[in-house]
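Hi there, hope your week has been kind to you so far. Do you reckon you could talk me through the fold, stretch by stretch? I've dropped the whole record in just underneath, so have a look:
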Amino acid sequence: MTQKTHFAPAAAPLASTIVSTSEEAITSGETSIPSQGENMPAYHARPKQADGPLPIVIVVQEIFGVHEHIRDICRRLALEGYLAVAPELYFRQGDPNDYSDIPTLFSNLVSKVPDAQVLADLDHVASWAARNGGDSHRLLVTGFCWGGRISWLYAAHNPQLKAAVAWYGKLVGEKTLNSPKHPVDIATDLNAPVLGLYGGQDTGITLESVETMRQALRAANAKAEIVVYPDAGHAFNADYRPSYHQESAKDGWQRMLAWFRQYGAKKS
């Protein structure tokens, strides 16, 4: 087993609460997706038994890349009847497994990945999924931390998207060449309903910034909802980290599935 089947070094120390999903009823594995002239590595999972094309969920990684937790999220979604695909969105800039601490990982790799590149890559993921057993009319996205922010942006980028669920993604921030807009800037451009799941104890994403986003969404008359779990901190769904808050994570997961069912997972 290579390191890629485990957890990113910068995610250490690991907690004892790691959830591992059985692959008995699903098919999963590595693939590569043609995107912007290159082959992007990705992990995908789907139920073994499928009656026709499946609803698609693009799973957008945390800063740690597509490591074991994100793969397990894909397997959990496959058990719920989805084709889940998690692309390696940093692959042109480097490998998150080369970094052993979060600040270096962020400054040397994550900050060098342009939003425009990521959004275009996600479009290619959507078209790959539609050619590989997915239903392009039932396209959904969810993302965690770094991927939570991207999920908001993707809901404003792709008019074909039916729904998005953003887990503790940054809402406001400094504008840079690679990140010219943040979720608060695109509230008026959302094409799909977005559910945001946030932790009340998150020191990096303040309740003030959540309120700023809520106001922007209200002003835009956007179809979106933000749920704040008062006892949870950042990365409360990350069962492999000490930040895991089981009660909030379980509730968030059920809310995500309900959001997907409500806005696009069902056959029309």
User: Anything to note?
Assistant: The mean pLDDT is 95. Strands lie at 26-35, 38-47, 54-60, 83-87, 134-144, 163-167, 194-199, 224-229. DSSP finds six helices and eight strands in the chain. The helical segments are 68-79, 102-108, 115-131, 146-157, 207-219, 246-265.
